Amino acid sequence: MNLILFGPPAAGKGTQAQRLVSGRGMVQLSTGDMLRAAIASGSDLGRKVEGIMQSGGLVSDEIVIALIQERLPGLEGTGGAIFDGFPRTLAQAEALDAMLASAGQKIDVVIRLVVDDAALTQRVEGRFRELGRPDDNPESFSRRLDAYNRDTAPLIPYYQAQGKLVEVDGMADIDAVSGLIAGALSRDL
Ligand code: AMP
Question: Structure pTM?
Answer without folding.
Answer: 0.96
